[in-house]
Every structure is written in C-alpha cells, then in structure tokens.
C-alpha cells in the first residue's frame, strides 16, 4: 500500500491539524506505517527534532500520533513571522533567509522542488502519508504560487477532504464556496467534506448535509462532535481565543494557583504552558493589560519571535511596570526564551530587530546578544533535584552574570529565567517548581502527585483516533487513500479563477 490524502480547511484553525493527527493515530492503531506532512507552515509554535531540525509543533504532535520519529521532511518549509510583512524562512529545519511577503515568491520554485522531494521520501518510507493544507485552498490570490494546498494536490495527485468549523457559523457557505472558487482541475480532487465541532441535534443538521451533497456532488464523510480538551499544539494564536477560562476554584475545595501568561503580539511556543494547565488546581489565563495580572500568583513572560518589539509593547501597555512591582514585592515571575531575554539588564540586537542596544527590564543579572546563527538544541539538566529535558530555539544568547542557577538561566528572589522550552513537561520538575511558586505566593496549593503530562498527551491523541473511528466514514477514507479522488466529480459553478498556467 502506498497512499496519501490531503486535509484542507475552509479557514485557519478549522480543525486541519487535529483531524490530520486523528487520522494518523487511527491508521497507526491498525498497524499502518503512516507519516504526517505539511509542505509549508506559517507558525511561531515550533519544535526541535532529535537531530536538531526545527519544524512546526503541530507536525511534531502529528508524528507522535503516527507513532513515528518527527523529522524535517514532515515540514520542509516553515515561515516564522517577525512582523506583518517579514518572516524567517526555515527550510529542512534550518533558517535560510528573512524575506518580505512580496519577496517570498522568488523562492517558490526552489521550495517546490524541496517539497516534492520530501513528500516522495515519506511516501517511499511509509504506507500512507497524511498531508495537511494551510489556511484555505480557496485563497485564489495565492493559488499561482501555492505549494501546500491545491498546488501540492495537483502535483502529487492527492485526494482532498475539506474540514469546516460549524461552531463559527456559516459552515455550509464556507464548504460550498471553497469548492466553487476553485478552477475545475482543482475541484476534481475535492472528494468530500468533514464538519468539525458540532453540538446539537444531528437530525437538524442532516438536511443541510444532504443539500450540500446535492449542490456539490460530494458527500460529507463525517461530523466530529464538539469536544473539550483537544487544544493540541496549535499553529497560531487563533486557538488561544477558543480556550475556556479556568474555574476560579480548584478541586477538593483547595485554592487555585493562578498563572497569568503575557500575550505578546508575536507570542511563540505558547504550548510551553499546556503542561501547567494540565495540573488540577492550576488556572492559566492570557494577559494583555496590567489589570489581568492583579490576582496572579505567577506571571509568565513566554517566548516571542520579536523580543525587542514585544518588550516595547510591554512598556507601552504598562505591563512592564506592573511586572517590576511584582518582582520588588517578591511575587513570582518566570521568563522563558524571549521572556527571559526581556528580564535581562541589556539586550544588544543587530539581528532580529536591528535595534542595537536596548535596555531590558533589569530584573535578572544578565545581558543578551543576538547571534546570526540560530541555536537549535535538545538540552538536558536538572533543577530542584529533578531531571529536566527541553528544547531551545533562539538567536538571543543570554550571558548570566549572577544569581542562583536555574536550568540554563538564573533566579533572583522570585524571578526565574530560562531559554529552555518544554521544561514544564517534566512532571517531577513541574511539581517542584509549582510548589516553590505556591510557597512564595503564600498560596495553599499542593501539586497533584500523579499527573503525567506524557500520559495525558497520549490519551488525547487516542481520543483523536477515536473521533475518526467513531464519527467518520472510514471505509470512504480508505478508498480515497488507496485509489485517490473518484473520477467524474461535477464542477461546482462558478468554477473559480482561470486555470493556473
């Protein structure tokens, strides 16, 4: 067997990533050798593979769902925005350029060949490759240079299913319109639909699905129910808006430990905090104003793709002053990667922002210098007497000049800094850190002794596999994977843009 499938979506955050992961887990549980693939990803949420390559965090998670080792070929092109118009281009796990949005097109032909080679490599090594699209395939202004949606599907003759988020509203118009905007040759590969995040009476939805099939000639292959707790390694900050605020009380009547995460404009690797949120009695929320920090027991400055610019935003909003007051009062503050850099006395950046010397918050005895070379690593260490494994992705090098050691950074009083992402996924370290924070905050909180983040992650991936097995037409999925899109699918008017040259 050597099959493939492309999961496209009507919008960003429609459910492509979780559906791709669910299909990978469903196949892996049946003994199928399967791998995920996303030709081009735009995300500030990335991860480092075992061999030191940077890929999108969602593709790393999908590889875990497939029970295979993540590798650079699964996400050959990663774009990391540093502003509204410029992005760092990461190819096969290594940064190669900083480009303006209009300059990126000049790289497309070379990247198209890289994408084709990576997909061929994965297809040769695995029975099935489940590809994920980006944004929407109906972004007709970008179709001519597309290498991730219908451009990929056409080049590799991939059947395509389109997922739409019914919780947003307008799902029928979105699904129909997505097909109708495509030219006939692209439409010929659209084989069916999946409705995501449905809650309500199925009998009320059914007539709409029947009419959608009558209008497009394509069936709905399944309806996935709205399910709590599936916030797995999201690619962009749209997913943060969908996360529910935690209850103000923890279980067993204990006081909740309240954690406020500063939501920088260019926040990156926000999944660092997922392991904290998995702890019973811990409430994690995102903060954009000083008032959001008022009752927080711990304030976290997370990673960012634009340290200097987001530091300026921190000052404009008044958050910097509030964080300084908290530190002076001995209330816990944690900086991770870019957040750690902000806590230093001084930042010298001629690489990311070109701003030169910038004064930091001065809450940690450290200085930061930005190197052109990017650090990509999987470090190991210990803290609180517990082992810690993590990963690093940064240009900024923090030179620590004092304080007590804390992972690769330092601690002064209740202010902690580290460049290590993923440290909180280490259960024993996380519990020790939270206990220290609770003590310093004067909070009556004891971390649960038996929470395993890895086990919770694995259970969530199994839930995704269950959703596919229980709610999708898996027979139809098999046929698409093995045989491709059915022939003779009708063209949906108006037929979209003129054919691609």
Write the layout of secondary structure elements.
Blueprint: E1 3-9, H1 16-28, E2 34-37, E3 40-42, E4 46-48, E5 54-56, H2 57-66, E6 77-81, E7 86-91, E8 94-100, H3 108-125, E9 128-132, H4 150-156, E10 160-165, H5 171-180, H6 184-187, E11 190-198, H7 202-216, E12 220-225, H8 238-242, E13 257-262, E14 267-268, H9 274-277, E15 282-287, E16 298-301, E17 303-304, H10 307-316, H11 319-328, E18 333-336, H12 338-343, E19 346-349, E20 356-359, E21 366-377, E22 380-383, E23 386-389, E24 392-400, E25 404-406, E26 409-412, E27 415-418, H13 427-441, H14 453-471, H15 474-483
Parallel strand pairs: 1-9, 1-10, 2-9, 3-6, 10-11, 11-12, 13-15, 13-16, 16-18, 18-27, 19-21
Antiparallel strand pairs: 4-5, 6-7, 7-8, 14-17, 19-20, 21-24, 22-23, 25-26, 26-27
Provide a quick synopsis of the model.
The chain has 501 residues and is an alpha/beta fold. Helix content is 31%, strand content 27%.
Protein model, in words:
This protein is globular. It folds into 2 domains: 3-228 and 462-483, P-loop containing nucleotide triphosphate hydrolases (Rossmann fold, 3-Layer(aba) Sandwich), CATH 3.40.50; 255-445, Rossmann fold (3-Layer(aba) Sandwich), CATH 3.40.50.880. The chain contains 15 helices and 27 strands. The two termini are 33 Å apart. The strands form 7 sheets. It has a 7-stranded mixed beta sheet with strand order 15-13-16-18-27-26-25. The chain has a 6-stranded parallel beta sheet with strand order 2-9-1-10-11-12, sandwiched between helices. It has a 4-stranded mixed beta sheet with strand order 3-6-7-8. Helix 1 packs parallel to helix 2 (57-66), helix 1 crosses helix 14 (453-471) and helix 5 (171-180) packs parallel to helix 7. This is Cobyric acid synthase. Catalyzes amidations at positions B, D, E, and G on adenosylcobyrinic A,C-diamide. NH(2) groups are provided by glutamine, and one molecule of ATP is hydrogenolyzed for each amidation. Keywords: Cobalamin biosynthesis, Glutamine amidotransferase.
